[in-house]
Amino acid sequence: MNNNALKLLAMAVVVLITILIALEFSGRNESAVPHDVLYPELKSRINDVTSIAITRHGDDGKLTISRETDKWVVSERDSYSASVGKIREVLLAIADARILERKTSNPERYRVLGIQAPDTDDGSGIEIAITGDGFDYALIIGNSAQSDYRYVRIADQAQGLLIDHDPDLPDSSGGWLLPDIVDIDAAMVRAVTINHPDGESIHIAKDTEEDSAYTVNDIPAGRELSYPGVVNGMAGVLKDLTLEDVRKSEPGEQAVIAAFETFDGLQLSIQSYKTDDGTWIELLADETGNEQATAINERVAGWQYKIVDYKANLLMRRWEDILRTPDSGTVPN
């Protein structure tokens, strides 16, 4: 092969490579649009949002969060206060989201990305509808991707998308609720008394805030505590006590009553009801000359709260939970 032929072949190879690169780049541009904002106008309207509706698959999958005059509430929880922090976190994640890639438009492939509408037979997607004065956005949230991204689909469009944010939608209604019930440091608790309906009672107390151990009264004869400090958790229940769910107060029977007294004069009673779906509590503070008690009652009156199991167990402790097993010297499970 002469030099001219070699030069022509080399030029042909260069042209072919150039064409292939151009085709690849063009193909990428069809699916990758890193400068496209998912909802370009949402961020400027975020303070005008009046309602957020979350729909999951199933009969009980609807949750509506609405803005009233001075607060956000969860409609399906008797208008209990919603967490403004969680609302803002989710709205900003969606408002700031940019499209990284355009994915499938084939409904048969939605399952792979988790972007099926929740009202379909196999709908694993979560629809979030954001409404305000003059605007309405509906987005189906699918599977997480690469830990920081999420597959989504605008509800009235067929195109699946990969966005550069991962909106953290709570798994249950409790994640949207204002979580705080009370928050009282354990050092401030002077005494705790737990009374069971069958008459069993445990009373612990200490003399000063600085004391690290509580005295346990009336330990049954011949028995001893399973280990030093086993009752300290009972005094720590009020520290960062938060809810998992909430409902209007319902008449209950066979309540376990835990009475707390603090060094600054607060007297707080907690009634605990164990049910098939967990433990629900109801609080009442003695307002006699105590502003803190008044504030607590204004917040919790008329409500029952579902709480985590380990806190519930501390509120309903019995002697068998804090004493060594008879004759064995072992600590009960």
Task: Describe, in plain words, how this protein is organized in 3D.
This protein is of the alpha+beta class and 333 residues long. The chain contains seven helices and 19 strands. Strands 4-3-2-1-6-7-8-9-5 form a nine-stranded antiparallel β-sheet. Strands 13-12-11-16-17-18-19-15 form an eight-stranded antiparallel β-sheet.
Concise description?
With 333 residues, the chain is of the alpha+beta class. It folds into two domains: 43-176, no CATH class; 180-322, no CATH class. It is built from seven helices and 19 strands.
Instruction: Report the oligomer.
Output: single chain
* Low-confidence parts: 20-33
Number of strands: 19
pLDDT averaged residue by residue? 89
Main sheet specs: 9 strands, antiparallel
Domains (count): 2
What's the alpha carbon Rg, rounded to whole Å? Answer: 30 Å
Task: List key phrases describing it.
single chain; 9-stranded antiparallel β-sheet; alpha+beta; 333 residues; 31% strand; 2 domains
Structural topology:
Elements: H1 3-31, E1 49-55, E2 62-67, E3 72-74, E4 80-81, H2 84-95, E5 99-102, H3 110-113, E6 126-132, E7 135-145, E8 149-154, E9 160-163, E10 180-182, E11 189-195, E12 201-205, E13 215-216, H4 232-235, E14 241-242, E15 245-248, E16 256-262, E17 267-275, E18 278-285, H5 291-300, E19 303-307, H6 309-315, H7 319-322
Antiparallel strand pairs: 1-2, 1-6, 2-3, 3-4, 5-9, 6-7, 7-8, 8-9, 10-14, 11-12, 11-16, 12-13, 15-19, 16-17, 17-18, 18-19
